[in-house]
Q: What sequence folds into this?
């Protein structure tokens, strides 16, 4: 089984999930005492959340893309691990809209919503770690396996990359805004950093 | 006609259907006497149903993938049989949300909703059996046809695999929960079992 | 420009449009004096309309698939003609849900809704006729162009195939049900007939 | 990294975004004093906006298609630039439905909504200009780079192409209708003009 359909199905799911984010871009219709600009202003957390989640899913897609590029033989367990990753990705629009709704309401609920939001990215990292471990353990399925001596340090770097989301979950209970800011900063970091968050993929494959 | 577009269209439909499941992941907005956690707790059947249906559709996709891998020539009847299968897949989000809505309400309606839910998976098995019969009867379209002597036992094993869903439909009228549990257990079984539910696909093609 | 991306984009649009049909598969939530079965029964036109439109879009996809199979060079006008066809396909879920909503209400509005429904399939035929004319006039872009002597009879057969939808539009103003039945019968006819509705595609390409 | 998955993911996003436009094609259900035809008539801005946005996204797709056709090596920055372009495309259905809702209400809000609508197309042009600059600066990633002497004139022609949207934003504050008409005329212009709006793509690749 080659990886073409795994990629084409995953691309479809990523594409739909990233587009469903836009369903939260709504604004109340005409009428009422307020102007359109005022109503748009009221919704600003939804617009910020849209951008963070859009690039969050986008980064997951870029990394998925880079990892799968290295896979030459797909096994059934990888298909199911990949499904678990997609199940998390597809839930991102839900946590995004929940957070956007509750953020301006403030109080304890806004902190729970922010923790959920950071939590879904942490779950995504967890699902990615299953893909990552599968790759470390199936050299025979890879075009370009890591040398055995490099595996533990790659593992270490990968798991360190999960820490910011754990911090964001914890800090959510102090401030929803700080938690959201961490998730946003991590997204920006991954966009501008040339180091790939998933170190098992050789740098040159990014050309 | 090769199978590329059949797969690409089917992958698209699977991807959209599996992502639409997430539209049921909603929670009431801020306000009211209850906390966000309480509201999420009220929705737990929707979250369980999301997971079962997500992996349910995912398993169908994996099997679709494995079967089509064996097809080298696509005929028009196969296109329409495949459409019938997709028509069932696309209805899964509807039966999922109906079941999630009615499960906590209890009473006779919850049992009807659970029977509908098990029923859509049974319909899916039925649609798959048309694909399966098409494959058994079109050796000339397959890369790797089953030997004639193995066809009847493959058929038997395939149809036995439909029995759990029939049981789930029947038991739904005793208990919605038992019915849902059976559908969930079947999904878990197919994930961990290495035997493919569609026996005409040679095991090695899963590599 | 080869046809890969034209097909992949079109397949995506077909897949989303066919899946959006399922958004009309809804039923009122628990509560109220009526049982779930009664509520489902009230919605039966939506279920019938879902099936007819699903196979309607499916047949368009099969024919699109078969026609494009014959194209080896894509020009910009073909991209825009194809876009026009997709714009019609994407409007099918809207006319489907409008018809389903108005059918049981009866009266003049149900007839207008049925005419709209038949009308969108007629528009689809019209958009297909632009693709068809493009193919008849660009032999140099086809793998397997029709001989010049066969073009007029192919054209005739193609345009005769549009007549049932025109009849369905006209009869809608006498009876919505008759109009719907004609659209459904045409769909069934195209599924079971081996003759392709678009005659320029040689039969053997269906293998 | 080749461009296959970049195209397949982008095609998925374009396909979902263009199909989501159809979610605004709705009409009030049966009942009330007005006929279906009257209700459809009330919604006419939504139908016009659907068509303009459908072909607007379609044109972006055609140009994306043509530009990517010239790319033989995909870098990570291009992936993120492409994500930014997609983030704009996915927001088009939102600005479309907002404009359709506010257009008939008139007043200052209709002008703000029209400016937003023209603005999203201007943002799209801006995102395209990043893709364009990437192409001008990465000859080594292109199959068919522009000669150095032609780059500045290509740049000039490209940026001149952005002016109509800027004018549409400005004129929106005088008249929403004039602004909408400009966006529509630009779409029609790009459909019938044989000159590609993105001049770095050699004309012959359109065959």
A:
């Amino acid at each position: 089984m080659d990886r073409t359909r795994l990629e084409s199905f995953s691309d479809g799911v990523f594409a739909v999930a990233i587009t469903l984010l836009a369903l939260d871009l709504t604004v109340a219709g005409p009428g009422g005492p307020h102007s359109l600009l005022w109503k748009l202003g009221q919704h600003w957390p939804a617009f910020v959340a849209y951008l963070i989640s859009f690039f969050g899913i986008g980064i997951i897609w870029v990394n998925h893309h880079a990892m799968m590029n290295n896979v030459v033989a797909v096994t059934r367990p990888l298909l199911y691990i990949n499904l678990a990753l997609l199940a998390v990705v597809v839930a991102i629009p839900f946590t995004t809209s929940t957070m956007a709704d509750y953020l301006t309401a403030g109080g304890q609920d806004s902190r729970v919503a922010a923790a959920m939001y950071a939590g879904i990215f942490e779950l995504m990292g967890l699902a990615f770690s299953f893909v990552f471990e599968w790759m470390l353990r199936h050299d025979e399925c890879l075009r370009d396996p890591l040398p055995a001596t490099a595996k533990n340090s790659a593992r270490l770097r990968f798991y360190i990359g999960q820490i910011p989301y754990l911090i964001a979950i914890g800090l959510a209970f102090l401030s929803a805004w700080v938690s959201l800011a961490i998730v946003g900063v991590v997204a920006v970091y991954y966009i501008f950093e040339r180091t790939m968050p998933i170190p098992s993929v050789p740098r040159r494959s990014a050309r």
Remarks:
- Residues 107-137 of chain C form the longest helix (31 residues).
- The CA atoms of residues 70 and 143 of chain C lie 5 Å apart.
- Chain C touches chain A at residues 12, 15-16 (CB under 8 Å).
- The two ends of chain C are 26 Å apart (CA to CA).
